[in-house]
Structure formats: structure tokens, C-alpha cells
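User: Could you walk me through two proteins back to back? I'd like the raw sequence and the C-alpha cells for each, with a short line separating them so I can tell where one ends and the next begins.

Assistant: Of course. Protein one, sequence then structure:
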Amino acid sequence: MSKIECTDKTINPLKVKGGGYHCTKTSEGCANCYAERLNLRDGFYAWANGIPFDDRDVEFEVDLSVFDKLPKTVPKRVFVQSMGDMFHGRNNPVDNNIAIFQAISDNPIHTYIILTKRPKRMRIFMRGLMRYEGIVDWGIDPYDTVKWIPDNLHLGVTAENQACADERIPILLDTPAAIRFVSIEPMLGPVDISQYLYCSGDEYRTPYLDWIIAGGESGPGARPMSPYWAESIRDQCKTADVAFFFKQNGVWIPDYLELPGGSNQWRRQRGQYRWVGTGDESVCMFKESKKAAGRLLDGQEYNEYPEVE
């Protein structure tokens, strides 16, 4: 099982030599990285190495045995490299990623979800796979540019705010992929992605986004997400008929959702609240727990997945 709501399994084939994981923080969404928090607990997790996700040099290696642990007959949605970024680049030879993508090709029963904050490196890598026949044997004609990338490979970028969305999404749309998705988590402000969701009136439709995931931040230091921000993303997806998955509210809830026992008033007195948003969409958020905040958005769960043509 996976604790990541939109997946069934998580695997981490890219590791630091000697054990554990590593990455380098690259944008605002990385500030409270859960993977770093786990990796620092070397006295608690046997696999952790205690190395912070900073700018130090480490050597990476590939552990393909993680693919052997996946079911052989039951399809699963598999998140690849939840403890880092496959396209970290630094000290990660391209042969490592080629080996991982070959393992993905050799286990076609599952759907593989790969997320990055470094779309330029992902674009270079994916274009290289298309250009050089035989690097990875997909069992598909490499000159059929429509179907060469298999349908069970979902590629995405994180866009925690508008700046990251406008920087990363156009690069994703320029990357060979069967399914392209965006994860707006942690959602740190309002984001307008409507221009990237569909292109109407084109005889030959240009690439567009197939799937949007959104959610608030959880864990120590979690920053609040206004429900209005998430509802806006939901509405943008609905207008464009794009699959929308809402993962979580994080650890903050709006004050209009009163908790039992007058606990909102208690939190206000203790200072465990924060105003987010502006104007008519300004809302007071109370700090609670991930469980209490839950997964409901405007009273409903959203668990949509993209359709593969």
C-alpha cells in the first residue's frame, strides 16, 4: 500500500550508495520536504542515512529489486521515486535512469507516475529516448511519435504556485509523454492553469494537461491552503473536462467548519490560526491535524484519474 492518496504503491529505485536517499531543494515547495524529514531519522529507519537534502555531493545507484516486489498479475498505480527526484541530475548518471525506464518497460502491467521539479532535464531525457532507437526497448516503433511513449507512463511536474506553474508546465507540454499531469501540492497560493488545460479550435490539437492533483501541506511547519484556491483548480478542470484529484486539505481547516466542543474558539485564543487570501476570498484557517482536515473539498471527495486513449 501507499500513503500517497492517488497511488497504490511507491517504489524508490534511485538511492544513495551505501543506503538512504538524497535530493536538493529547488523551490518554495521544498521547504518542509517530508522525504528529507524521513531520511534524517537514521536512528529510527534502518534505511535512512541522516543526510539533509542540501547541496552536498553524493553518489547514486539503482536498486531494480524494488520492481520485483510489485504484483505480477494485478495492475497498480506506482509512484516512482517518492523519496527524491529522478531528474536530480547531479551525480546521477543518465544510465541510472535508462535502467529504471527499462525496468518500467519490462513490467508493463502497471501504471507508473513520475513527478519532477526539474522538467528541463526530464525533457532532455525523454527526447533522447525518442531520438536514439534501442536505448529502451518499449516494444513500440520508435518512429511512431504518437504511440512511441507507452500509455502506462505518466509524467508530471510540481507547481506549488503561479510562478512555478508558468515556468514548468510549458516545458512539460514540450516533453514526449502519453499522459501529462501537474501536482499542485503543497498549494501555496492561487494558481491559474486554464491556458494549459486544453486548446480549442485547433485542427491538430497541441499537447495539453491530462490530470491535475491538488492538496495542502501536512507535517511540521505546514503552511495553510485556502479552500478557495483548491476550488478554483477544481472548477478550471471541470470547465476543460480534465481529471481532478484532491489529495488532502493538509493540517489547516477554515473557520466556517466549526469543530465539536468549541475548539475553534480555543485555537483562536491560543493563536493557532492564520488568515490567507485577499478580499472576498480571505479566510481564517485553524491549525488542526491531517486526519481532522481530511480530503473533502466543498463537502466532496475528488478521485478522478486520466483516461488513456
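----
Protein two, same layout:
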Amino acid sequence: MKAAAYIRESTEEQANGFSPEAQRNAIYKFAEDNNLKIVKEYVDYETGRKAEKRPGFQKLISDAIKREFDVILVFHTSRFARNTMEAKHYKKILREKLGIDVISVTQRFGDYQDPSAFLNESINEIFDEYYSVNLSFWTRMGLKEKAQQGFLNGSVPFGYYRKERGAKEVVPHPKQASIVVKLFKKYATGEYSDRELAIWLNSKGFKTNKGRSFNKDSVRHILTNDVYCGFVSGKRGRGPKIPGKHEPIVDIELFERVQRVRKEKALTKNPPHHYRVYLLSGILYCGYCGAKMHGNPQREGRCYYCYSRKVGNGCLHRLNDAEILESQLVNFLGEFHLPEDVIRQIANKLRERAKSKMSQEQEENFNSILKKLERLKDLYIMGDLSKNEYLYRKQVLENEIASYRPVKSTDIKRAIQFLSDFKKFWQGEKDQKERQKLLNLLLNKVIAKDNKIVAVQPKRSFLPFFKQLADIGGADGI
């Protein structure tokens, strides 16, 4: 039988025999004694209690769904989860849905289906969570008390250092403190951004206290941290200001001036809303791999990128110019010049279709998509999909569902006006968001390849318009 070993380290518990090596030795000995072959090992180091914050655990669940092993071995119930709800949730999925048992090699509970074994395991899981919550409580109390006494919590910020290892007090760094003051003064002029100041710091050869290069986020953290004007907090910066025992580097007046400049920049930095609208958002797909394409501003202007390429799945499709693609689609739709009697016939068909029920085959397809949505949600909950991947696939399925739903009569009327004289309608509608809605009303998919639209897929209800256009020979090349 194939087994997976799951090992989780907690720094504060290594002294209790929970070191990774101790866990590994016990798990492999149990496997040997019980004729189990360990085919995969998953490890999490110094991670939070929540399963979603443990990459090794998420990979374990993902591989379990693929049936890559038959049983999971852990050193102790606390290594699997320290939250009883999570422990029960994942064990239920593994045991009942996937047929994969979870065995604690140092706690012999027996068959999990046996009532006594179930009770014994549940009691241990409750104690595991109690221990974790209790430890967290006293840690928070210690940090709060430390802050009340005026001492800094957490890592030492750039500009300060401890004279001795383990010392409570921090003092201004002989070289970094003056740089912090310059940083605040430069930003207070309103002429520099966080990114520009990060470049300036890096050009001077400075590193963060963790030895990394500065970026806009690390600069923002400095400029908004009231530690530099002599305060501490017991709640990671969210609590009331408490005067600290350390020497301030920046005076309060300069600190508050910087905060005012930041607020002013936040109110003025965003461009007008219509410049950020991507007309093909939600309907544009890659002509190489079929993945969805998303809008993204670049230095050169607005662009669309292939999602599959961005996440590293090997697609070769480069950035596509948004202006070029959107103009092509507008020109294509501008070819609509249908006679009034044809428009009237198509409109009547649309209204009839809106009233009609789905065929048995369509209903089966519709229900199949709904089931896929449910399965997709389960995969996301179990950690098999990232949030971005889940939202992307969900949107694709929801677009398919929309194609089965009847179009509202108001939408039919608007679409007919839109297509009867597209150019006039388009020029009359100045709101870019409204233009985007119109395109989403008509089209399921627009497929692009190398700055060229190569195909469009209309919504099922508006297919007659596009068929009629093809019959009269319009819009060559799409």
C-alpha cells in the first residue's frame, strides 16, 4: 500500500520532540513495521495554524485528489491540524470521498469508523486546538505587555538596531538613521514616489534589515510607520499609539506632513475611469492556447495578456495592443447594414426563442455545467486550485451558463437598435462601461492572435444576425 508522509514543524515545539527529523524517523519506522511504502513526503516549516497557509499541506490534498497514495501518515494529530473544524473537514473529504485514511503513528486510535476510535481522536483534536489557542493567547498578552512598557515588538525596523543580542531596547543606527530622515524629507516635497525612493536607496547600497533590496512596499512601510517618531503599538500597528522607550528618528511634524502628502497623492494618482476600461474584458480568449486574456496597462499603453502565459503554462502569446484589437472588433460590427424586413424577422425569432423552453439536450448540458461549477468549488475549498485559477474557470463556466438563459426583451430591443445602425449607436454611446456591456450582451467569445482578431462567437440568441451578415458577405477576415 502506498503512503504519504506529512511533516509540520513548529519552532516552539521542537523541544517537545516534534522536530522534523523526529517526526520523519517515527513515520518511516511505522511504515516499515506495517508494510507501507512511502511514495511522497510533504513538509511545512514554521507556518500558521490555518491549512490555507501551509503550501505543503495544500499540495498533499491536491495529490490525494489525484489518488497518488492510499494513506497519509502523520507523527501526531496536532501535525495534521490544530483547528478541529479543519481537521474534521479535511479528514471527511480524504476518508469518505477519496477513501484515504489519516493515521497518527504515535496515537493508536484504531479504525476511524469505530465509535470509540472516533471519540478518542476527536478528544485529542480538541486538546490540540486548546493548546494552540492557549499558546497564541499568552503570546499576544506578552506582546501587549511589552508594548505597554514601551518596547518594540517584532523585527527591528530599518534605521534601528539592538546593541546586544536579546536586548529589549533599540537605538538609532549610526548610518541608517540619517537615511531615514532624508527619506521622509524627500517624500514630503511631493516630488518622489515610493518606487523612486526605493531605487534611490538601492543605488546607495542599502538593504532592508532582512538583507533584501528595497521596493515600493518596503519604502511605504517605513513612511507610514509611526515607530520612527517614537511610538509603539500592542496590535501590530492597529492599536492606540503608545510612547516608546526608543529614541525617535523623525519629528512628529515631518511624519504627519508625509502622511498628508500620501493622502493627497492617493486622491489624484488614479486616471479618469474611462481610460481603464477594457472593452473586451470577459470575452477575449487566446488564439494559441484558448485561455482567457485580461486587460493590463503597460508603459506603451493598454494591452491584453494571456492568463496562461502569465502563470507560466508555456503559452507563447505576447502582449496584444488593446487599441488595435478593439478597433478591429468595432470595424467588424460596423459592417452590419441589414434591411428593415430582415431585422424584423430576426427580432420576432429572438422573441419567440426568449419565450421557448430549453430542449432536453440543452437542459442536460445546462445541468452539466452547474455540476461542474459545484465540483470546481470543491476543488478550490480543498486547495487543489489557487484563487485566481478558480475565479478564471468559474467565469468561463458562468459565460457558458449565460448562453443558455433567454435574453430579456429589453436587451433584444437594445441589441436590435445596436446592430441596425452600429456606427451611429456606438458613436452616440460615450460611456465606455456601457459599450463594454453591449459587447458582452452580443458576444460569448472573441479570439485574438498576434494583435489580430481571428474569430468571434456570438451569444446563441443573436446568432441569426451574424449568419445573415455572413450570407450577404460582410466583414471579411473574421
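Residues 323-471 form one domain.

Let me know if you want the two compared in more detail.
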